[in-house]
Specification:
The protein is an alpha+beta fold. The protein contains 9 helices and 7 strands; from the N terminus they run αααβββββααααββαα.
Length: 525
C-alpha cells in the first residue's frame, strides 16, 4: 500500500471511530409553577400572630445537616450516628460502589485484550514399533534360451528405538474490536448514568432514614409530654379524691362522690400506663435506625418543648435539583437513552482484529532467539443480514422503556410538587389549630378552677368537677397531639423539599471511577 493510501485508510478509521449511533439525550421539559400556592400570603390571612410562618427564600437555604434547624442537640447526635451505623444506608452505599465498578468493567472494552499461555511439553515415542521396507530389484528382458525377463522384490523389517522431544512455547494473543459505532461508548455512558442513579438512590434512602429518625424522636418526646400531662392529672385527681373523702366525713358530700372521684383517678392511671407502650415502640425504632440493639438502647424522659421552626421553601423549580428521587428518575432516563444507542449499534458491521506471536523452541537456550519467533495477524468483519426483525424489536423495546422512564420522571416531579404543597398546608393549618387549642386549654383550666371552687363551697355536685377535669385532660392531650403532628409535618416538609441535598453532589459522569468519587456522595459510611 502506498503512503497516501495508508493515510487515507488511517483517516477513515479515525472517522469511523468517531461515529456514535443512537438518539441524543435531552432532559424533558417539566413546567414548574412560579411559587408554592400554599405559601402565598393569602393563605396566612387568618393565621394568629406568633404562629408558624415559612421563611422567605432569601432568608436561608436548607443545609446538609437540615435537622439542626430544630435546635435539638439530642436529635443532632442521633442523626450523626445514623449516618454512620444505619444498615439500610450501608446497603445502598455498597450498591453505589458496585455501580462504580461496572463503569470500570465497561471501559475495559475500549482496549485490546492480551493473553499469554506459556507451555512446556516433553514427549517420548515407544521403542516397540517396527518398520517394514520393501525393495524392488532390477528387471531384465531377452529372447534367448533362458526365457523371459524377471523382477525381484525384497522386504526387510527394522526395529525403531524410542525418541524424546521437548517443546517450549511462549505465545501471546491479542484481540480487539474497535468501537466503530459507539457501542462501547454508549455502554460506558449507560453505566455512568446507572452509577448516578445509584448515588441519587443512596441519598434518597439517607434522607428517608434521617426523616424517619426525626419523626420518631418527636413522637417519642410527644409521648413524654403526654405522660407529663397524665401524671399531673393523676396528682390532681388524687387530691380531689382526698378532698371528697374529707367532705363525706364532714357530711357535706355523699359516698357516691367518692366513688366518682375514684373512678376518675383509676381511668387516668390506666391511660398513663398505656402511654409507656407507644414510647417503648418509638425508642426501639430509633435504636434500629442508628444501628444499635433495642435491648441496649434507651433515651431519658424529656418533654417536647421545641416549636416547629420556619422552613426555607425556595422556588418550586428548585425541587428539580433538590430532591434525590427526581435526580434518580432523570438519570434513569439518560441511562435508558444510552441503552438505545447500544442496541442500534447492532445494525452496523463489527470488526475484530486479532494477532498472535511468541517464541517456540525445544531448548531453553534458543527459546528467545530470533529463529524461535513466530507471528500471525488477521481481521474479521461480520454483519447480520437476516435476523427476522430481532434488532428492530430490541430497539423498539428499549425505546418504549425510555418513554416509560420519561413518564415516571414527570410523575415523580408532579408528586414532589403535591407533597410539598401538602406539607406546607399541613404545617400552616396545624399552627392555626395549635393557637386555638391553647386558648381551649386555658378556658378548660378556668372552667375546672370554677367547678372546684363551687364544689368545695357546696354549691355544685362533684359531677361538675369530673366533667371539667375530663374536658381539661382531653384538651391538653389534643394540644400535645397537635404539637407532635406539627413537628413531624415540618420534618416531612423538609423531606419533600429534598433536605439539604442538590444535584451538584452527584458524582460526575466522567469521574465516577476515580478514587475520590466516593467523597462526592456526602456522609458515606
Amino acid at each position: 500500500m502506498t503512503h497516501p493510501a495508508k493515510l487515507a485508510a488511517t483517516a477513515a478509521l479515525i472517522l469511523l471511530a468517531g461515529c456514535r449511533v443512537g438518539p441524543k439525550y435531552t432532559t424533558p421539559a417539566t413546567p414548574a409553577p412560579p411559587a408554592f400556592k400554599e405559601s402565598a400570603p393569602a393563605a396566612y390571612a387568618n393565621t394568629p400572630d406568633g404562629t408558624w410562618q415559612p421563611a422567605a427564600p432569601q432568608d436561608a437555604m436548607l443545609k446538609g445537616k437540615w435537622w439542626e434547624v430544630f435546635h435539638e442537640p439530642e436529635l443532632n447526635a442521633l442523626e450523626d450516628g445514623l449516618n454512620i451505623d444505619n444498615q439500610n444506608i450501608a446497603q445502598y452505599f455498597q450498591n453505589f460502589m458496585a455501580a462504580r465498578a461496572q463503569v470500570r468493567e465497561a471501559r475495559a472494552a475500549y482496549y485490546p485484550t492480551v493473553s499469554v499461555a506459556p507451555s512446556y511439553q516433553r514427549t517420548r515415542t515407544p521403542g516397540t514399533l517396527r518398520n517394514s521396507v520393501s525393495t524392488t530389484s532390477g528387471t531384465s528382458t531377452g529372447t534367448g534360451t533362458g526365457g523371459t525377463g524377471s523382477t525381484g522384490t525384497t522386504t526387510s523389517t527394522t526395529a525403531t528405538s524410542g525418541s524424546t522431544a521437548t517443546v517450549m512455547s511462549l505465545p501471546f494473543d491479542v484481540s480487539w474490536e474497535p468501537d466503530l459505532w459507539g457501542k462501547v461508548r454508549n455502554t460506558v455512558r449507560e453505566y455512568q448514568y446507572a452509577t448516578q442513579v445509584s448515588a441519587a438512590e443512596l441519598e434518597n434512602e439517607r434522607l428517608t432514614e434521617q426523616a424517619s429518625l426525626a419523626e420518631f424522636y418527636f413522637e417519642l418526646r410527644g409521648q413524654d409530654a403526654l405522660q407529663d400531662v397524665l401524671n399531673k392529672t393523676i396528682e390532681a385527681d388524687k387530691k380531689s379524691l382526698e378532698l371528697t373523702r374529707a367532705l363525706v366525713e364532714t357530711g357535706i358530700d355523699s359516698p357516691e362522690a367518692v366513688a366518682e372521684a375514684e373512678v376518675t383517678l383509676r381511668n387516668a392511671e390506666e391511660t398513663g400506663i398505656g402511654v409507656a407502650t407507644n414510647r417503648a415502640i418509638y425508642e426501639h425504632a430509633i435504636a434500629t435506625l442508628i444501628g444499635k440493639p433495642a435491648s441496649s438502647f434507651s433515651l431519658p424522659v424529656r418533654m417536647l418543648t421545641a416549636d416547629a421552626p420556619p422552613i426555607p421553601l425556595g422556588l418550586p423549580s428548585q425541587l428539580l435539583q433538590r430532591r434525590p428521587d427526581i435526580a434518580a428518575a432523570e438519570r434513569t432516563m439518560a441511562q435508558a437513552n444510552a441503552l438505545i444507542g447500544v442496541e442500534k449499534a447492532a445494525y452496523y458491521p463489527t470488526l475484530s482484529l486479532t494477532g498472535s506471536g511468541g517464541n517456540e523452541s525445544s531448548t531453553i537456550s534458543k527459546l528467545f532467539s530470533a529463529p524461535a519467533f513466530f507471528w500471525s495477524l488477521g481481521s474479521t468483519a461480520s454483519e447480520t443480514i437476516f435476523d427476522a426483525g430481532l434488532r428492530r424489536a430490541t430497539v423498539a423495546q428499549y425505546t418504549a422503556t425510555y418513554n416509560a422512564d420519561v413518564a415516571a420522571y414527570k410523575q415523580t416531579v408532579l408528586t414532589a410538587f403535591q407533597q410539598t404543597e401538602d406539607y406546607i398546608a399541613t404545617v400552616r393549618i396545624l399552627s392555626q389549630q395549635i393557637a386555638k387549642q391553647q386558648e381551649a386549654v386555658a378556658a378548660a383550666q378556668r372552667y375546672l378552677n370554677i367547678a372546684q371552687a363551687r364544689y368545695e363551697t357546696g354549691l355544685d355536685p362533684y359531677l361538675d368537677v369530673i366533667t371539667a377535669q375530663n374536658t381539661l385532660l382531653s384538651d391538653q392531650q389534643t394540644l400535645v397531639t397537635l404539637h407532635v403532628s406539627e413537628m413531624t409535618a415540618a420534618v416531612q416538609l423538609v423531606q419533600a423539599l429534598g433536605g439539604g441535598w442538590d444535584t451538584t453532589q452527584l458524582p460526575a459522569a466522567g469521574a465516577v471511577n476515580t478514587p475520590g468519587a466516593a467523597a462526592q456522595v456526602s456522609n458515606t459510611p
